[in-house]
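User: structure tokens for this one?
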Amino acid sequence: MKHRSCFAGALFAAAVVAAPAHAKVIDQGDAGFTVAHTAQVAASPDDVWAMLRMPQKWWSKEHSWSGDAANFWLDSQAGGCFCEKLPDAGSGMGSVQHARILFAKPNQLLRLSGALGPLQGEALTGTLTIQIKEMPTGSAIRFDYVVGGYMRFKIADIAPTVDAVIGEQLAGLANALGGALAVERGNDRDDEAKPDAEDGESARGPGLDAAVADLVREAPKD
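Assistant:
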């Protein structure tokens, strides 16, 4: 219980130090919340997908149980694990499942199910959808994390904190791919757009193009 409390404290501290660029708690209610982050990188969708599959190179060690990002691994097939090894401290090797893979479409979409960090100890479902879109200068990446269920945290307190932590992971991914590009922002008309459906056609929203339209625009042509 003490370890859970310390880890929760570390997550709350992240809200103070993290400064995600394009982010928003886009929905919040009694049952849960949704946060979204977008970045643009000068890397192809192939390269983004390859890096996504290596969380040990971009997921923050500050949001690990072992304190070492080298212990992360991800099996990017449906049913696969985003997991972490817990080194043997004298009583045997341990492990943690951060999330499991629900949907994997190379170079386009990765969806994981898992209540991250201290949320793991609550009766929650967390769904992280990572979308990739090819752009003239590289790729646009969007993280949407939807959390719902019963928790002992106050949603008004935990939602902006989780927002900061998810933003930190996208920043780590962008940095591992050479750094995020500066992009123009439109107005916030599409901030609440829903991510793509698995078949590429969403009955609830206009799809990936609209989902990232407010945050990523084509670079101006010379």
